[in-house]
Structures are given as C-alpha cells and as structure tokens.
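Entry type: protein chain
Record version: 2
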Amino acid sequence: MKNALKDWTLPVVLTLIFLVAWEAAARHFKTFEYMLPPPSAVAVYLWKATLDGSLPSAMWVTLKRLLVGYAIGVAAGIPAGMLCARFKVLKNTLGVLALGLQALPSVCWVPLAIMWFGQKESAILFVVIMGSVWSLVLATLHGVENIPPIYVRAANTMGSKGFHTWIHVVAPAAFPSILGGMKQGWAFAWRSLMAAEIYVTILTGFGLGQLLHYGRELLDMNQVIGVMFVVIMIGLVVDKILFSPLETALRRKWGIERS
C-alpha cells in the first residue's frame, strides 16, 4: 500500500503544478482563453455535460462501438497472424499487405467506409476494425516466428502434434508479443474511432468524436478540451485495469518481476 502511494505521489504533484500553471497563464493572458481556456472552465463544462446526460451518453456510444470493433479486430487478427506464421504463402501475401496497411493513417479509411456503407454504424465499425486488425496480425506473426524452436521440438518429442501444439505450446509462448499487439491495436482502435466519429454523422448515436467535432464547429474550446480529457482518462483507466495487470502477471510468470 505504501509503495503504491509512493508511486502515485510524484505524478499527482506534477499534475497539480501543471494545472495551476495552466490556470494562472490562461487568466493572466485574457486572449489566451480563446485558444486554451483555464482548467476551471473545462471542469465546469464537464460537470454540466455530465448533469445533462450528454457526456455519459456519448461515452457509452463510443465505448460500445470501440469494444465491438476491437473485439472483431482481435478475433480476426490473431488467427490471421497464426495462419501467416504457419503458411509461407500467406506470410508473403497477407503478411506483406498487413505491413503496408498498418502504416496507412486511420482517417484514410473514412471516405472508403462512407462510400461502401453510407452514414451508418457499419461504416464506423469498419474503420475501427481496419485500424486495429493489422497490428494484431503482425504482432502474432512476429511472436510465433520468434519462439525458440526447442519449444516445439520438445513438445513433439512428448507427443504433441498439429493443433494441440499450436494451442498449448505456440500460442502461450507467443502471448507476450500478442499482448503487445493487443495493446497497440487498442490504441489504434481509439484513433480510428475518433477519426470515424468526427467525419461520419449518425443520428442514432452521437459519440465523443461528434462532441469533439461540434465543439470545434461552435468554437467552444471548453468542450473540445473536455472531450479530449475524457478520451485520455478512458485510455488510462483501460490500461491500468486491463493491460497493466496482464503485463505484470506475464512478467511474474516468466520471472522478470517479483511478486
């Protein structure tokens, strides 16, 4: 408990110093507020948006889209990476394609999604999937390729073959790389979703991206920065609740970190 408090003390103090300096600068330079309002004004927006329900509603819509698109990306990317590692022809085709598409900015998928699916939920999901799936394919492929060959040979010696080897030997050994790809894919999914929500307007559900866009249209910097703050906080919470515990457990399992 004491170690945990000690780890959090310095970040909290530095954050408070930053917020105080930001508040003082914004109030001293009055014209500066039009570009970067003080934290107190942003906090007022967040409080009002929470009370009127617009912010919680947008958060729910965005998280629902994110979880669905990311789940599809994981379900497609990991098996595809396994297949690329198993079959050379897929590695030389799908693997190369994944390497190229991973470098493509997520916003480039938006015009294509709108032309294919229109202003619908499926257009946003398509962008999220395209933004996350390729990093998962590559992470899985590289994870499998970097497994020490002795693992598979030892498993074969003990009678493990075929699908059993892939499930009980290859997949666990490649999991550190796969986890890294999942974490990267989550970040890419966030970026893709924000790009999609800014450009794809769906009347059935307004997400954080739409709130960000409307804040820009109305020149409401409180709303713009407030939504950005919410996106950052959601990313931090997910990392601390989901990915960090998995990484810690993995390091302990491999003897890299003490309990």
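Comment: The radius of gyration is 22 Å.
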